[in-house]
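Throughout our pipeline, every protein is held as a single compact record rather than as scattered files. The record that follows is passed on verbatim for readers who wish to inspect the format.
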Amino acid sequence: MPDMSARRVSVYQSDRAGLKHGSQGEAEAFGLESFDWLDAQLDTCVTAVARALTEVACSVLRTEITLETRASSLERPGGEAVPRRDVALVIRLVVQGTRSLVPVIWQLGTPSWPPASLVEDMPRELLLEVRGAAEGMPLEAPVRCPVVLDPWPASQLVHECIGHTSEADNFLEYARPAGFDVGYRWTKVPLEVVDDPLLPGFRGSYTTDDEGGPAARTRLVSEGVWVGLLHNRATAAATGAARGGNGRRVAGWRETLPRMSITYAEAGRSRVEDLIGQISEGLYCAGAWGGGSVGRQFILRPAYGRRIRDGQLTDTFVRRFDFRGDKFEALGQLAGVGNVLRMFDPAFGCDKFGQNELPVSFGAPHLYLRALDLHPIRR
């Protein structure tokens, strides 16, 4: 059976009457739920967003809420067809900021049916992102300072820096030639990082990879030291390693690549208050905008930052900035790991070498880094 994919989308837009619907592919063949079902879920989301926004003294000029059901079927070796499906919720707002109109994006995914869990934490987190957009001042000049990352951007940092570099093809391309081999100490902090597709109930969950190999839990970092890589059949053969069950691909592509599944940093011992308390001047950063990486370089874009002064979190917001830098140097700045792990299913998948939107999951506690480089967003 050839690869197949389909999706159904319902969109609420505050400047249009009614809901907008669309679909791609053979949605009925996958049993994707009807728009009546989507409308009911979307009504719940709209209500939750409206309730959150009433708590913010600012002008939200436009609201767009997209709820999308997606499904695909990939052909495995031997002709087996393996189905995947999930739900994505994306909320886009336009907020009147201090100097200009400011976009806000909040997003989350889930493989569960129905996706009631999507809106459980949304009002509280969306409220802070809107406050950051409405009250925050844009970063004016590059700065290097201590930061505490909320679990979402902390998860993204682990994904971009450790996760992608631990994919064996990337490791062979840019890490080992630069002298960074397994056994390298990423940080003096006892950081633990794992990739585990066998955890059930996540977008990145699976028991057999797309080459037909059994999935396995791989410890990537132990006590701050690089101890494992993610392999497909080709990289395992090239390095003499055992296959790890991380050969993955997206529908329509024949080549598998070493890819992450559910990648997370385990909880440490520090309360977030104690991490913040170590900083005299710095930022607490949160939000779900995302990030990316090319070779050793990464970029991370939180939705906003809140000033830390004299070990206390203030209500002064900063926005429109990226973290950029060298992956190895950045993780070398790690100075503390929070004691509460949070896991996430991003609505958007992972992109690599043109194979985009691969379902992955990630997680982390709060992370404290002694210094990261912040750059203003000019465009």
Remarks:
- Residues 43 and 195 are 36 Å apart (CA to CA).
- Helices lie at 35-53, 122-135, 151-165, 168-175, 233-239, 272-277, 327-331.
